[in-house]
Amino acid sequence: MADPKFFQKSKEFTLDQISKITKITLPKDINTKKIFNDIAPLDSADKNKISFLNNKNYINQFKISKAGACFLKKDFLNLAPKNMIPLITENPYHSFALVANAFYPSKDITAGVHPKAHIETSVNYDDTVQIAPGVIVSSDVTIGSNCFIGANSVILSGVTIGDNTIIGPNCTIAYSIIGSNVKIHNGVRIGQDGFGFAENQNVRIKMPQLGRVIIEDDVEIGANTTIDRGTNPDTIIGRGSKLDNLVQIGHNVVIGKNCILVSQSGVSGSTVLGDNVIIGGQSGIAGHIKIGNNVKIAAKSGIMKNIKNNEVVGGIPSVPIKDWHRQTITLKNLIKKK
Amino acid sequence: MADPKFFQKSKEFTLDQISKITKITLPKDINTKKIFNDIAPLDSADKNKISFLNNKNYINQFKISKAGACFLKKDFLNLAPKNMIPLITENPYHSFALVANAFYPSKDITAGVHPKAHIETSVNYDDTVQIAPGVIVSSDVTIGSNCFIGANSVILSGVTIGDNTIIGPNCTIAYSIIGSNVKIHNGVRIGQDGFGFAENQNVRIKMPQLGRVIIEDDVEIGANTTIDRGTNPDTIIGRGSKLDNLVQIGHNVVIGKNCILVSQSGVSGSTVLGDNVIIGGQSGIAGHIKIGNNVKIAAKSGIMKNIKNNEVVGGIPSVPIKDWHRQTITLKNLIKKK
Amino acid sequence: MADPKFFQKSKEFTLDQISKITKITLPKDINTKKIFNDIAPLDSADKNKISFLNNKNYINQFKISKAGACFLKKDFLNLAPKNMIPLITENPYHSFALVANAFYPSKDITAGVHPKAHIETSVNYDDTVQIAPGVIVSSDVTIGSNCFIGANSVILSGVTIGDNTIIGPNCTIAYSIIGSNVKIHNGVRIGQDGFGFAENQNVRIKMPQLGRVIIEDDVEIGANTTIDRGTNPDTIIGRGSKLDNLVQIGHNVVIGKNCILVSQSGVSGSTVLGDNVIIGGQSGIAGHIKIGNNVKIAAKSGIMKNIKNNEVVGGIPSVPIKDWHRQTITLKNLIKKK
Which residues fall within 8 angstroms of residue B75, CB to CB, at 6 or more apart? Predict the structure, then answer.
């Protein structure tokens, strides 16, 4: 059970309500008014809890689980224990997430600007926002409805933020247009100068960075991640993309929609990613290249040239993933021969 | 000598006092009241300074050092210069560190809450703590005795902190139980959401992250490091473990006791490390695997499967360290043949 | 055109003025009073804009560009379109950067200490500095003329800062001597303890870190980068060096002049870099080694031993760059044979 010191469960749900939340058709001949009071994993759930089976590895736990109801794929229906109500779905983990979000919603925003926040008079916002103590909001910022800005964060001049966006504590946001339903975690830096210099005999002067950062709707950005603003045009993070902690995004990078960048990965300046790209942890992508749609990049890879749509790559420099595995095996065999 | 603008030496010590601090038996027939006024390296020490010899590479410096006393192993005793008092120990660097800490103790805490800190009324603490200006402490936080919280740090609701713990400036701590004698450096982020989503046709919803972060006693966490809270159960950093700067710890990770994670290394979600594990810089460990006790991982390695107790590994993907060296040599030889 | 919400153009310039800014000799028989009102890329420039040609890849754009004037190398003069005024220079990108900085100068500092900053009485500064709200400056700090310190940054006791230095929001600076014309981006951590411990039977005590960080003039440090102070002596970043985001610099490291460290690279403790060293993104350098002048290190490399002046290396562990390319090709060929 979640520690009640940190997590407040909202309430209980009937099977009917759960059916509506997940758009799942309930089995016939059950009591649709039966009440469930929490979510739980298969091995600790009791008859008042809802669980899920997503993975063959947990079938033994599933067979003896005491969970009152369980999301599962049709294929496993005949293995369900006698007293469990089966909730058939194509995507049990996704259904479970929907119910988990219902039981543990994001904390309600206690609207209002804390008296220890500092908001310039030209800032545009309504009384649905919550701004924590120590926040600094500079001139000409626009903040949408139901936004939350965490303690000691700094929002610099001209930034625009959409609705329902959450910015954690200790962040810095500058030169940016931030969408709606965006979640920016603690310590994120968005919109600082890109790393662009003009060099003359080893001495470098800064090239002015005259672009912005555009964060589209539904994006999530992990703790202490850094996103530089464009030289002009802009650095763009596409709708629905999720960046993990300590990720680096260089100036003028364009990230497509629904991409995943796992922690400590980096994308160098002016590189363009398609949609649905998945980048493993600690991978790096060179500058000025193009990564196609649906590309998957293994952890710790180094990408130095364009990658076509739908390719799966790994290694430094990267090769098709099967070739990378073959190289690894070949090297292992080579030292055996010696 | 340390810059007195930044470092205040506490006082002087007699050989008797140094013997007590280090639990070293003094040589016979020496003046145990002799006073030492500082520590110094072999090459700049004078007769009033204490030095150490930890490494054969410094034997030439040692033979002509003017240090008044020196920690060394028994084996080097016959090479000591005439006027140096030899302080025999199995671990000269550790003995030197004990004395260095005596000469340069952590700054005394000037107890009290700065009037420009913001502490909610429900926070539990006594008058031995020091809280710097700009700190924000949310509701229901408990802070132990003699803790220090640096300027502009943010401690969110429900966090518990043990005794004698130091949190640097500009940190964010949320959903966490922090032990005693813990040192958290500047800009650390602890307790934010893990990177967990349920995906349906490339669109992702957040899985609520209902666990906490447990930081056990005597842990040190480097600047700008990020530690996500568990999904439920918790993310745990075991007693005495030391994390360097810019390290990433995913949700549900368990780090054993006395582990070392060098800078820019990362551990992915749900992976479990045993005790005394050493992870080199920029290494990455995949999620959902198990690393045994006393494992050593070379810098820049990629660990993709379980590692047994006491193994030493390197490479991407990692292999036993000797095999990695052989692979490296084999590759070098292959290109010579061409 | 740069978004006027974020970027204010200063004014217009005549060709005469541009000639003075760039030290370029104008062609004969042109109207040196002709006015230019902005910079622009070749493909969107009109007759009132100045552009540049730095790269053969843009020759087709160049031939049909409507730019009123363009920086270019002598070799391309005969390809210039009829109405373009050619501005001949050995380094078109550098000349363009000079003019770009003239059109878009760093924002003027609105001098003064914000009433919501907290400055200890012993701090030394004049009325040309600007200190934003939420900044905390501890005792005995010295701040030079025309410095800017961004919101919620923390400057700890004894730090000295030269003239014209810019420190972004949410930074922490401790135990440091910072030069003039330095730019420190958002969330940077400078001067915290190095990662130095004395170990005894797996238990570690901290070795006091009694050195400082010296940042020389004209250095730039990227967002969320971390620089540990020395054990004694100091950690040093040499004049004109540029560090990107999320870079890690260990204790006692010495970086020479005019070095470039691309994002997510790291240098371990006590390593010394010469001048003009370029380190690619996500590269790591082991501790206690020496890197010569003018060394270039490919992205994602691992450097484990000394590198001589002028070498170019890549790979993990690194080898001369040509050998690394050969190894890569050899591996590709090996798996084809199978």
Answer: none
Provide the whole-model pTM.
Answer: 0.96
Interface residue of B114, B195, B221, B285 to substitute, partner A, most A CBs within 10 Å: B195
Model pLDDT for residues A110-134, shown as the tens digit of each residue: 789 999 999 999 999 999 999 999 9
Rounded Cα gap, residues B222 and B105, in angstroms: 20
Q: Assess whether C185 carries a catalytic annotation.
A: no
Q: Which two tokens stand for residue B58?
A: 């410094």
Q: Which residues of B162-183 are buried (b: 16+ CB within 10 A; e: fewer)?
A: bbbbbbbbbbbbbbbbbbbbbb
* C244: contact with A, CB 8 A cutoff: yes
CA–CA separation, C320 and C314 (whole Å): 6
Q: Six-digit token pair at B95?
A: 């003995």
Instruction: Give CATH 3.40.1390.10 domain extents, chain B.
Output: 13-103
pLDDT of residue C71: 97
Q: Does A170 touch chain B (CB under 8 A)?
A: yes
Q: Average pLDDT in the B171-200 region?
A: 96
Q: With cut-offs at 50, 70 and 90, classify the pLDDT of residue A108.
A: low
Any B CB within 8 A of A291 CB: no
Nearest CA in chain B to C118: B133
Q: A218-338 belongs to which homologous superfamily?
A: Hexapeptide repeat proteins (2.160.10.10)
What's the confidence (pLDDT) of residue B1? 74
Q: Does residue B233 have a cis bond before it (omega within 30 degrees)? A: yes
Beta-carbon contacts of residue A144 (< 8 Å; ≥ 6 apart): A125, A129, A161, A162, A163, A164, A165, A180
Q: What is the DSSP string of B142-161?
A: EE-TT-EE-TT-EE-TT-EE
Q: At what angle do helices C15-22 and C92-103 cross, to 10 degrees?
A: 120
Residue C246 to residues A297, B46, B119, C4, Cα–Cα distance (Å): 21, 41, 31, 30
Distances (CA, A) of C48 to C2, C12, C70, C131: 15, 10, 11, 38
Q: Could you confirm whether domain B13-103 is CATH 2.40.240.20?
A: no
CATH 2.160.10.10 boundaries in chain C: 171-323
User: In chain A, whose CA is at the least distance from the CA of B315?
Assistant: A328
Residue A105, both tokens: 């919603």
Among the residue ranges A103-117, A302-316, B173-187, B232-246, the one predicted with the least confidence is A103-117
3-class state of residue A96 by DSSP: helix
Residues C94, C251, C288, C325: which is the catalytic one? C251
Which among C190, C278, C183 is positioned nearest to C228, based on CA atoms?
Answer: C190
Q: Summarize pLDDT for C103-132 with one digit per residue, the tens.
A: 998 776 678 999 999 999 999 999 999 999
Is C262:A264 a contact under the CB 8 Å cutoff? no
Chain C residues whose beta carbon lies within 8 Å of the beta carbon of residue A174: 186
B302 neighbors B284 (Cβ within 8 angstroms): yes
Q: C327: which chain B residues are within 8 Å (Cβ-Cβ)?
A: 331-332, 334-335
Chains A, C: CB contacts within 8 A come to 171
Interface of C with B in 293-332 (CB under 8 A): 302, 304, 316-317, 319, 323, 326-327, 330-331
Shortest CA distance from A315: residue in chain C: C328
Angle at which helices C321-337 and A321-337 cross, to 10°: 90
**What CATH homologous superfamily does C171-323 map to?**
Hexapeptide repeat proteins (2.160.10.10)
Per residue, what are the HEC states of B38-105? EECCCCCCCCCEEEECCCHHHHHHHHCCCCCEEEECHHHHHHCCCCCEEEECCCHHHHHHHHHHHHCC
What was the pLDDT predicted at C276? Answer: 98
127-166 in B: which are within 8 Å (CB) of A?
134, 136, 138, 140, 152, 154, 156-158
Predicted local confidence at residue B231, as pLDDT: 93
User: Higher-confidence residue: A106 or B90?
Assistant: B90
- Give the DSSP H/E element, type plus range, for residue B200: strand B197-200
